[in-house]
Write a structure and sequence with these properties.
CATH class of the largest domain: Alpha Beta
Radius of gyration: 17 Å
Order of helices and strands: EEHHHHEHEHEHEHEEH
Number of helices: 9
Strand order of the largest sheet: 5-4-1-6-7-8
Helix content: 40-55%
CATH superfamily of the largest domain: HAD superfamily/HAD-like
Structural class: alpha/beta
Length: 203
């Protein structure tokens, strides 16, 4: 049997980090007097933070805002929760011969900090970098597949946003929609899971 890999987005798929994001964004609003409601920020999640700022038409102090947001996100790290049955489901996939990996728009420092905190292990972890375009471009997924030397036709990407869907489509991997996450997608002919343990029915 050919080896399969299941790649995961993080926020909204493995972790519920909405309250962390909200507190961090509210602190950014207060410090930089942006007056941009969290719902507008939250609508754009799933792409690198600097791209979110561009979509919100925030040009002044963009770098300082990004650094401050990350600082506050780390401060509120205790508000992030792993979704129920994540660990048991990942263990099931590994026992059944699948490799697992992460492709996320979260920066490398915070990603590794979370993975270490919850004692998760992955074959590959791909975060935004200068060399890779962020979602919805396919670069990060392609990099993950290259790291583990597995073909796109043996790969799946579990995500919860349209940007996740587009990144999977453009890299030719099969998309699995985590409907319990942060976005409402109405796509035809895609696999849907209502909770992460539903992956056991697929693999």
């Amino acid at each position: 049997m050919k080896k399969k890999i299941i790649l995961f987005d993080m926020d909204g798929v493995l972790f519920n980090s909405k309250e962390n994001m909200k507190r961090s964004w509210n602190d950014v609003n207060n410090k930089f007097k942006l007056k941009i409601n969290f719902k507008y920020y939250f609508k754009e999640i799933g792409i690198p933070f600097n791209k979110i700022l561009e979509k919100l038409d925030i040009r002044t102090n963009a770098k300082q805002i990004e650094l401050f947001y990350k600082e506050r996100s780390i401060f509120y790290n205790n508000l992030i929760r792993v979704y129920p049955n994540v660990k048991s489901t990942l263990s099931y996939l590994l026992r059944n011969g699948c490799k697992i990996g992460v492709v996320t728009s979260k920066d490398k420092f915070r990603t590794l900090k979370l993975i270490k905190k919850f004692r998760l292990k992955f074959s590959t972890i791909v975060c935004p970098s200068k060399e890779l375009r962020g979602k919805p471009f396919p670069d990060q997924i392609n990099k993950a597949l290259s790291n583990v030397k597995i073909s796109y036709n043996q790969a799946f990407y579990v995500g919860d946003t349209n940007n996740d869907f587009l990144a999977a489509k453009r890299s030719l991997v099969k998309f699995i929609y985590a409907s319990y996450g942060y976005s409402n997608l109405s796509k035809k002919n895609i696999l849907v899971i209502k909770k992460i343990s539903d992956l056991k029915k697929i693999f």
